[in-house]
Amino acid sequence: MKTQFAAELVAIRRRYNHPDGSLMADALCGIDLSIPMGQYLAIMGASGSGKSTLMNILGCLDRPTAGEYRLDGIDVESLDDERLSEVRGRRIGFVFQAFNLISELTVLENVEVPLFYQGLSRSRRRERAREKIELVGLTDRAHHRPFELSGGQQQRTAIARALVSNPAILMADEPTGNLDSSTGESILQIIDKLHADGLTIVLVTHDDRVAARSQRIIRLSDGLLISDVAGGRSSAVVMR
Predict the structure, then answer these.
(1) Beta strand pairing status for 92-96 and 74-75?
(2) What's the CA gap between 176 and 187, in Å, rounded?
(3) What is the pLDDT of residues 128-151, one digit of tens each?
(4) What residues contact 113, with CB distance under 8 A and at least 6 apart?
(5) Which residues contact 158 (CB under 8 A, 6 or more apart)?
(6) What is the pTM of this model?
(7) Under CATH, domain 5-230 is a member of which superfamily?
(8) Are 177 and 100 in contact (CB under 8 A)?
(9) Which strand (E) or helix (H) includes residue 152?
(10) What are 150-165's pLDDT values in tens digits?
């Protein structure tokens, strides 16, 4: 059976220039990477290694300077900004270290936000949001605002928001970085369950223990992919 890929990157480069056009930095220097549907991938690397740039390109938050990127079969580099934004909103869910919740909105309203931009009716937004809030165990907090929640509850809200569009990939950038170890473990257990249910996970972390929960660990250094090995969940690694 042919492998289905959630994301495929071929010879991806990202160059940053000074205003005068001179080279400032090569953040990515020809990355080849294929992520099969349903894989749990961890991205590691020191500060300045290129891991955040890679995450931004995978998440369609930035465009490569050169190379090819297919997201869920779509040639991303050929899309205009409007279409790229639409694809990002529907096919990628983001979870960040800082939660990025809107303080004036309740948990329910925060989770609804991506669906508002997709033009869904209020009743449909509410239905989908309540479903994801229940999934992360926050039904009794649906009408609380972020300042009334613990850090772990805020991150659960962020996960529910990331899932509400039923994305092809969940991208998590240091999702436990602002949490104590016990709370962080509960968040990682949610991510583990999402992966067990078939969701593709891409997680950026500096913590070897967090990375070890994945199926596959890649490491970057100076914009190059220097290591691609199995994580603790599986010995199967797909290379490009």
Answers:
(1) unpaired
(2) 7
(3) 999 999 999 999 999 999 999 999
(4) 102, 105, 161
(5) 95, 96, 99, 100, 101
(6) 0.89
(7) P-loop containing nucleotide triphosphate hydrolases (3.40.50.300)
(8) no
(9) helix 151-163
(10) 999 999 999 999 999 9
